[in-house]
Design goal:
single chain, alpha+beta, globular, five-stranded antiparallel beta sheet, 589 residues, two-stranded antiparallel ribbon
């Protein structure tokens, strides 16, 4: 049922939005479409209707703990037990399954899934994606340029994990890089101290991976490192690595690798960083900070905000299919014996620990793009398309949200006095961020400005942020040397041992590569019945003002799309992951 129209005796038309599946013999209560806060309802019968709806939702959408120290999740063990309004549509379910079966069959026919041996050469690694016609353009670029320091640096800005690089004004004691070590990389006219003072030195630290237990694949022990990488922005504006240490503990058995080292020593050190980045991206930047947080926002919204609440109407489209895809992920992707457990070097216990540690480090600042960019000191790095496109989308969402909030909340007291809204924020704080005040996540909202910022963060996380860390997974991960999911030898403890045979025996074997690639292909596929950012076919708002705000939002997104496509037209490697044509409203895949 989409909606019900009722014409009064005086000819006035009233619309009652529904947009729900009606299963079997059931009774559904729907309100006239005007959005109402609790304070706006004067009749007791309407207040009672709100209470009944929330009581039923709180019984239907219960919290559970999936793993200690993780955000809590929906208390459902199978997609078949989900409410019909949170499940994939028939079109989406068929397409999702079809893509998976097709890709699996393609790999199987090619024999990759049946080979548990090492790749015979770097060229052979390309054959796994050369058959995916039309999707091989970026992987071919990666296969051609993955050895280059320029491309290695580029990926920290515009790759799948563009949120961990930060400015380095002082080296940590655990990373004793000396000026002499990097003098050659910096050039004769400057030195390390000067470059740090000028803000041109950056650092990436995978401390979260320190002492994470590794697992086995095919009975063979895998290995995990917690590297630290120092990068320099050259006079040409490009970012390049200048020093890599493969552990958190310096010493004779943890050398600092440099670009001047032997080719395969340096390449292997960079590949260990790329492997660490695989875990950081998949488990923290992608799983935790988009999928799991989107689920928190979705469940809290269903439990605490009735359908007539303006914030419910604003946010509901941004949770489409999220509960389905996350329930599915817990069943086949991140479960014991699932794809990540089988295809990556981390044990299941290691996977749990990484996410637990990651949540402990999450801050409200890091979830709000403008604040995060400033905090990491990366406002002025050139060619940082994630930042620039992200700013554009954040501003467009913020403008839309501000208009909606201003229309329904005339003053701060309307925010602080909205008990349903306060229960919603507290539910998120308690069950999503486990009540950790040091995160800076608010447990209440007192002002109109605070509400605007929080709603903008929620919408941005579910749409633009997810797109930025999801859509490029196949592009940048199809060539296994660029993003290995496991490492089969321990990190080198001395220099001079690297070689191509050693490299091929370290990165994942053929079938592990193929298994991971099937998943990456699916996760970055464009499925039918996508709903792009700003497209709201379910007309939950019926008043003229919010409908006009939606039209203005779509116009802003169209202008952003044009600017991105104009830039991409001139680029050899296009950054298109935050193009509004590629950004869905919700975390749905």
């Amino acid at each position: 049922c989409k909606y019900v129209n009722v014409t009064a005796h005086d000819g006035t038309l009233y619309r009652f939005p529904c947009y729900q599946w009606l299963d079997g013999n059931t009774t559904v209560e729907v309100r006239e479409g005007t959005a109402k806060k609790l304070a706006d309802d004067k009749l007791e019968i309407l207040k009672e209707q709100r209470r009944r709806e929330l009581k039923a939702r709180q019984e239907a959408f219960e919290w559970k703990t999936y793993s200690a120290g993780w955000p809590r999740c929906l208390n459902v063990d199978s997609i078949f037990l989900l409410d019909s309004n949170t499940q994939f549509s028939c079109v989406r379910a068929t397409d999702f399954t079809g893509v998976l079966i097709f890709e699996g069959a393609t790999q199987l026919l090619s024999g990759f899934l049946l080979r548990s041996t090492s790749w015979s050469s770097l060229d052979e690694m390309r054959t796994i994606f050369s058959r995916t016609e039309g999707r091989d353009i970026v992987p071919e670029y990666v296969a051609k340029h993955w050895k280059e320091d320029d491309f290695f640096g580029y990926q920290f800005l515009n790759g799948n994990n563009p949120i961990i690089i930060r400015q380095c004004m002082e080296l940590p004691d655990k990373f004793p890089v000396t000026p002499d070590m990097v003098a050659h990389s910096l050039g004769g006219a400057t030195n390390l101290h000067n470059e740090m003072q000028e803000g041109r030195i950056f650092i990436v630290d995978y401390e979260v991976l320190d002492d994470i237990p590794a697992g086995t694949i095919h009975g063979r022990q895998q290995y995990i490192a917690a590297p630290i990488c120092l990068l320099h922005q050259g006079t040409d504006g490009l970012l390049r690595p200048i020093a890599i240490q493969l552990s958190q503990t310096p010493g004779p058995t943890s050398p600092i690798f440099l670009p001047s080292d032997a080719e395969w020593d340096w390449l292997l050190a960079k590949t260990w960083v790329r492997n660490a980045d695989f875990y950081s991206h998949q488990l923290l930047t992608h799983l935790l900070r988009t999928h799991l947080f989107a689920e928190i926002f979705a469940i809290a919204t269903l439990r605490q905000l009735p359908s007539c609440h303006p914030c419910f109407k604003l946010l509901l489209p941004h949770f489409r299919y999220t509960l389905h895809i996350n329930t599915l992920a817990r069943s086949v992707l991140i479960n014991p014996g699932g794809v990540i457990d089988k295809g990556s070097g981390a044990s299941y216990e290691g996977l749990q620990l990484i996410v637990q540690r990651g949540l402990e480090k999450v801050t409200y600042t890091s979830l709000c793009l403008p604040d995060d960019i400033e905090h990491r000191g990366v406002a002025y790095i050139p060619n940082y398309h994630y930042r620039d496109d992200g700013f554009s989308l954040w501003e467009a969402i913020e403008s839309f949200v501000s208009g909606i909030v201003a229309f329904y909340y005339a003053e701060d007291a309307a925010v602080s006095g909205d008990t349903e809204l306060q229960a919603w924020v507290m539910d998120i704080f308690t069950n999503g961020f486990l009540g950790r005040t040091s995160s800076g996540i608010p447990s209440s909202l007192q002002t109109v400005a605070e509400l605007k910022k929080f709603l903008t963060m929620v919408m941005f996380t579910c749409s633009a942020q997810h797109a930025s860390v999801n859509n490029g997974q196949y592009d940048l991960g199809a060539f296994v040397a660029n993003a290995p999911s496991s490492m089969r030898h321990p990190p080198p403890k001395q220099k001079g041992k690297g070689s191509l045979p050693d490299f091929l025996d370290t990165v994942p074997e053929v079938d592990t590569t193929a298994n991971i690639l099937v998943v990456l292909t699916l996760l970055s596929s464009r499925l039918k019945d996508m709903r792009l950012l700003g497209h709201y076919p379910d007309e939950l708002f019926t008043e003229a003002e919010p409908r006009q705000l939606i039209r203005s939002f779509k116009k802003q997104l169209e202008e952003i799309k044009d600017r991105i496509e104009e830039r991409n037209h001139r680029a050899e490697l296009r950054y298109n992951y935050m193009n509004p044509l590629q950004v869905e409203n919700s975390v749905s895949i």
